[in-house]
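Quick start: what a row looks like.
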Amino acid sequence: MVRIHHLGMFFNPTFLPGPDYQLARDAVLLISARGSDRDAIWKGLSRSWKSSKAATAPRAQCCSPRVSGLRLRRRLPTAGGIGPPRATSGRVACPYDGPVLLLPWHLTDHLAGGFNITLPTDVVVIHGRLGATGQPWTDLAGVYSGLRDAVAAAATPPVVVSGDCVASLAVIAGLHRRGVRAGMVWFDAHGDFHTEATTTSGYLGGLPLAKAVGRGDPSLPAALGMTPLPEESVMLVDGRDLDPPEVTALATSRLLRGNVTELGTSALPEGPLIVHVDLDVLDPAAVAGLRFPAPAGPSLHAVAAGIADVARRREIAALDIAATWRPAETDRAQTDAAVHAVLTAAGMRG
């Protein structure tokens, strides 16, 4: 018996062992899919049927072939602040084999109500704890250390959803702890390439990309056990809203620069990649309530296509999504559409 629940595909494993279960699952995917998705699933389904006699039917490739296969996803109680799954796109999600890690924080602010987005009901909520030393980077180590540990413990590439870009440092540190050395493609409307010496606002969320490559105060990266990434292993995509000090710093750095529409052919960092997506990379018309909206941005379709280009050309070590909006000011249909499109484009739709 197989059933579909809103955005997620949930299967009752009762009584369909081995290849019979796989064929049933693939059939439901085929029936539920549309357009090009149906074509791709049909190819995988045909392969499954052909090999079912050997009881080793391969799974339909509705997710990126670089991400290890699909798995049964059982429904668990809804995680606090996320809300129950609900249909927003009319399409069936592809189950994802890796963990979905939720850190409901924006820097020093705990977002107890979540992000106003729909996520799988078995999402893992990370409970950060802000320190009380009065030293901002030292205090933030307690917010992000649990995320680092969860990434380090993940057996497959994790999906991370947080409220800021500083969480990316914990993702890098967690992969390092697991022995994974990955470069990074950073989708963002902003540069996030300030240091303490150049920022005029003092906003800590404007510094993480610089910290990822070893610039500025190393307190937080050191506390997380993060080794700085080589600058040439990092690409900033979009970055249309830069402050003058960031323009200067990027011009003298070895970071790669990219446009969302050119990632199918432009030079990418070598090796496996962390894909970091600050959703303010989108044009503000696509997502209401952004903390720092930057006009004249790319559409959701264009950003998703750029992410898909990266996923097609490189192995994804982790997908790090920064939901940098004020949850109370957002529209659930828009936030769901944005997160869903990113997960799908990266082959980690869940």
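That is the whole record. Residues 1-38, 40-95 have pLDDT under 50 and may be disordered. The CA atoms of residues 275 and 319 lie 5 Å apart.
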